[in-house]
Amino acid sequence: MVKKDTDDEGSSQRVTVLRNATLVPLLGSQEDRDAPRRQPWKGVVLERHVVQAGEIPEHEHPTLCLHLQLTGTRDFEWWQDGKNAVERTEPGSLIVIPPGTRDRLRWQGCSERLILSIQNDAMEEIAIQLGAQHALEIVGGWSLHSASLRLLLAEMGREAQESWPLGSLYADLLALGLQTNLIRNHATQPMALPVPKGGLSLPRLKQAMEYISDNLAEDIGLEEIATAMGLSASHFAHEFRSSTGATPYQYLLQQRLQRARSLLMSTTLPVQNVSALTGFQYPANFVRTFRQRIGQSPEAWRREHRS
Predict the structure, then answer these.
(1) In 62, 71, 184, 284, which residue has its Cα 20 to 30 A from 53's Cα atom?
(2) 247 falls within a domain
(3) pLDDT tens track, the chain, 307 positions
(4) What is the C-alpha separation between 11 and 194, in angstroms, rounded?
(5) Looking at the domain assignment, is residue 250 inside a domain?
(6) Against a cut of 0.85, is the pTM above it?
(7) 179 & 233 share domain
(8) Among candidate residues 127, 159, 185, the one where a domain is terminated
(9) Phi/psi class of residue 100: alpha, beta or left (left: φ > 0; alpha: ψ in -120 to 50)?
(10) For the chain, how big is the Rg over CA atoms in Å?
(11) Which of 138, 159, 185 is the last residue of a domain?
């Protein structure tokens, strides 16, 4: 029987392993104080740690685990299935640990790293949606170099460190991109996935989302966003929806309401000021939209969440 470490609040938002039949955080100290907060991606947990020299006792990974080394060049040693080796690493080095792996680690120096876990059912669901005909197994490795995985993990780390400024939609797309990359390139039986037709590339999509986020207080329309992207309004709207499943307006409204909740929570600004700062020309429209989407008036939501 597996027990959870009940002393660790927010364990569902931690990268966990099995040690002595108890589910505990992989790393006992939480360097990233924001990590226990609710994260926007589904089935994925991301942490940032400064790992000091020392040993991690033997443990088992119930989920797929990835490390991206950000700083440090010291070696580390691993033990797994009767095998043992010392790895030379550098910033950009990756570790991929499949579920069910039992291992022990010894860090020979300090390093900063992103550590991520992916729930097994989340990966399986995506694999099935992509047409997998066999059970999904990911190939592990203690010192891998993959530019595409590194870029995706680094981007997820930046978004998390900045509290997901582009919202849950972009976070979900990053997590989906990471899992699709693993299924396509790092499975025991790599899948020849169909190439998506249409849509914006991830860098172009990020550019559009950043433009929207930077102009939430302005009365921006589809034409203005499309012009900033160098596209016609109709082409941009079609490509954005093909990439995200949402229209540009839906994303703009989602971001405005997210910014409004942040202002209501962290300031004492009157509702009419919050309305202006989030791009609503008339406070009445803001209050009506907030109530329709959130289920409460802005003032009622503020009282409940600041109490």
Answers:
(1) 62
(2) yes
(3) 445 554 443 345 799 999 998 999 998 755 544 444 678 888 899 999 999 999 999 999 999 999 999 999 999 999 999 999 999 999 999 999 999 999 999 999 999 999 999 999 888 888 887 777 778 899 999 999 999 999 999 999 999 998 888 988 899 899 989 998 998 889 887 666 666 667 899 999 999 999 999 999 998 889 999 999 999 998 999 999 999 989 999 999 999 999 999 999 999 999 999 999 999 989 999 999 999 999 999 999 999 998 7
(4) 36
(5) yes
(6) no
(7) no
(8) 185
(9) left
(10) 22
(11) 185
Domain count, the chain: 2
115 and 256 co-located in one domain: no
CA 137 remoteness from chain centre: 22
Report if residue 190 sits inside a domain.
Answer: no
Which residue range forms the structural domain that includes residue 133? 3-185
Write a three-state SS string for 178-211. HHHHHHHHCECCCCCCCCCCCCCCHHHHHHHHHH
